[in-house]
Design goal:
heterodimer; A: alpha/beta; four-stranded antiparallel beta sheet; 10 strands; globular; B: 305 residues; mainly alpha; 12 helices
């Protein structure tokens, strides 16, 4: 395989004196779904925020499509096609669904009408609520809106931060199905999840983070079968299934 | 009825200034206490231009009056916008870069406020009662609804304020700049993820606030007298108006301004000495803070706190 679309090399990120990431390296190849797993505070969200330019690494570098992107602020990175669906969805509550989707296309002169139509086909619920304020939507609908908004920016790399958080299992399944569909249309996905079973079923490969370091890596299947992963992250879910 | 008209006139000036507070609060969650000096600079800036155009004003032909008024508004607005822009660059941006605590911004704001006010005093003299040359008959009565008198100047003030507010309302709801201002006031980090340049938008927000405040400075100077300390009282009242309407809420600032102007001008009606006018404004502020801290249209304050 050639060079990865996204290459993260030995990055260290600090919050004041605290080292949140202690030399994290990984790669995401074009067309892949890669999952970042780990417990709370392991550094998953920090990693994603660093990739999207919300945080800057103190040491190390990040390459996207062969170009260095560390040090570039978030609002400029989006024009390279890195779209981030942040933790907690973060839709604009006092804007309508339609305005939210248009915000996603802010980097273009005007939103792509065809793309908007495509997003609304992907999420029919959003079409029903197109004129509603985003703050009145349910959690699942807000997640759909957040993903739809990111799609409006025509991502090459889509960053998803805990899309399943706080949602009912049925909705989670819907959302993961849609992520799979988005991926098969050619968008590379880097997903952060606590819901390891769902994420690994979807992902080609995964990395496990622990207190700011990558401790384990493998294909989705390998990680699903790994005893340490099962013990640490799948305990409840396996019990629930069997 | 006359008092109502006076109230609307004053209120529309408060509204213009209040918009400056509210816009900046929206994007920065910061009360820009130097905004009253931005307003003041508008009066001086426009005075320079108007004085240049009409001299002592006695020989101004009537056809020229509308143009001079427009020139006055524009020059006031532009002067104040430049000051507001500089203010953000010098007094706020460096603090933001370092992630300074809120208190630092407040102190910086007050410092900038004193600086600007004293600078104007140094440059233009410390008279409190400068006045514009009378280049038209400001007090000509245009019409008399219900026995009240509506004067030219009042129409000029209210009409230009309303026009600017309509313009702002459109700007904020339709244009991309307006969208970015709203997005930043709702959620700045996410706005950046959408590709919005936060620094640039904040800068432009200060400029818009300055334009409105400076125009108000001209109108105010035309109506009353002006001086280097003129900003304080209208500034604080406009701040009260912004809180009354719900700080961070643009339509709220417009309504709050008008309402405050009307309420304080109704004081003479209830047989209280007009010296109490200013007291009324601040009693309104205190009452609002006690019973409805988010203001009339406000939802922002609770969430931002």
């Amino acid at each position: 395989m050639s060079e990865g679309l996204l290459q993260v090399q030995d990055i260290e990120v600090r919050y004041g004196a605290i080292r949140a990431l202690k030399g994290v390296s990984f790669e995401v190849y074009e067309g892949e779904v890669v999952a970042l797993l780990g417990a709370n505070g392991a550094g998953k969200t920090t990693t994603q925020k660093t990739v999207s330019g919300m945080l800057q690494p103190a040491i190390g570098q990040i390459l996207f499509d062969g170009e260095r992107i560390d040090g570039i602020p978030a609002h400029k990175l989006i024009s390279m096609g890195i779209c981030h669906v942040p933790e907690g969805r973060r839709v604009f509550p006092r804007m309508t669904v339609h305005e939210n989707l248009e915000m996603g296309a802010f980097r273009f002169k005007r939103p792509d009408a065809q793309l908007l139509e495509h997003v609304l086909e992907l999420f029919p619920r959003l079409r029903e609520r197109i004129k509603q304020h985003a703050g009145t939507l349910s959690g699942g609908e807000q997640q759909m809106l957040a993903i739809g908004r990111a799609l409006m920016g025509k991502p090459r790399l889509l960053l998803l931060d805990e899309p399943s958080m706080g949602l009912a299992p049925l909705i989670v399944k819907q959302i993961f199905d849609i992520v799979r569909e988005i991926n098969s249309s050619g968008v590379t996905v880097l997903i952060v999840e606590q819901n390891a079973a769902q994420a690994l079923a979807l992902a080609n490969r995964g990395y496990v983070l622990e207190t700011g370091e990558i401790v384990l890596t493998g294909t989705g299947r390998e990680l699903l079968a790994d005893d340490r992963v099962r013990a640490a992250y799948l305990g409840e879910e396996i019990a629930a299934v069997s | 009825m006359n008092y109502l008209i006076l109230g609307i006139t004053r209120g529309s000036m408060y509204a213009l200034i209040a918009l400056g507070y509210t816009l900046v609060y929206g994007v920065l969650q910061l009360i820009n206490f130097a905004h009253s000096e931005v307003f003041m600079s508008g009066a001086f800036g426009s005075y320079a231009i108007v004085h240049l155009l009409v001299g002592d004003g006695k020989a101004t032909p009537s056809w020229a009056v509308p143009f001079i008024l427009i020139a006055g508004i524009l020059s006031g607005a532009i002067t104040a916008a430049v000051i507001a822009w500089l203010l953000e660059r010098v007094a706020y941006r460096p603090l933001r870069r370092r992630g300074a605590p809120k208190l630092a911004f407040l102190i910086s704001a007050i410092g900038a406020s004193f600086f600007l006010s004293q600078l104007a005093g140094k440059l233009f003299g410390r008279l409190t009662s400068n006045s514009f040359p009378e280049f038209f008959d400001q007090n000509a009565v245009i019409f008399r609804p219900f026995g009240a008198e509506v004067r030219v100047l009042q129409i000029v003030i209210v009409a230009s304020a309303v026009l600017m507010m309509i313009f702002l309302d459109r700007l904020v709801s339709v244009t991309k700049l307006g969208r970015s201002i709203r997005a930043i006031s709702e959620d700045a980090p996410t706005a950046a993820l959408m590709g919005i340049d936060i620094d640039k938008t904040i800068s432009r927000t200060f400029i818009i606030g300055g334009l409105l405040g400076g125009a108000a400075g001209f109108l105010f100077g035309l109506n009353f007298s002006f001086g280097n300390t003129m900003g304080f009282i209208p500034g604080v009242k406009a701040f009260a108006a912004a809180v009354l309407g719900g700080i961070g809420n643009i339509r709220g600032a417009m309504i709050g301004g008008l309402l405050l102007g009307i309420v304080e001008n109704l004081v003479p009606l209830v047989n209280i000495d007009t010296k109490w006018t200013d007291v009324v404004a601040f009693v309104v502020l205190v009452l609002v803070l006690m019973f409805r801290p988010t203001g009339i249209l406000g939802e922002r304050l609770g969430r931002a706190a």
